[in-house]
Amino acid sequence: MSSSGSTYGDIHRYEPARESTAAAIAIVLLTVIEVVFVFMFTYGLVIGWALTDTGNMFLGGVLAVIFVDLAFILGLYRKEFLPDVMIVKKRRRKWEDLYVREDQVDGVSLGGEGGGPWETVKRAVYPYYKR
């Protein structure tokens, strides 16, 4: 579904999510595996596996598996259950990301009108000047 509107916030493209059953089952199974590894990590911390070198490396590996499993869960959820939406945004010039208003491009004088050492600070803080 597309629209031809070009004003702020108009939906340019909308593709609904697939919401497949296989992905839902995979997410549930990965969540069960996640809970098992979190329980194993917590049990290892309470028992004191981290006090030995081998146990500490084992707990580090379990923690890595926990985060990789979580990454797979979130990736599957994003791909299968979130719609693909593209909205219209306003293009901005490069300097607009650095300054709030166009009149702030020259910077603000920090030490009065005389300049002096404050001019150096002003040039360091506001490196972009109007030509």
From TrEMBL:
InterPro entries, A to Z: DUF7318
Transmembrane parts of this sequence: 21-51, 57-77
UniProt keyword terms in alphabetical order: Membrane, Transmembrane, Transmembrane helix
Keyword field contains Membrane: yes
Name the UniProt record assigns to this protein: Uncharacterized protein
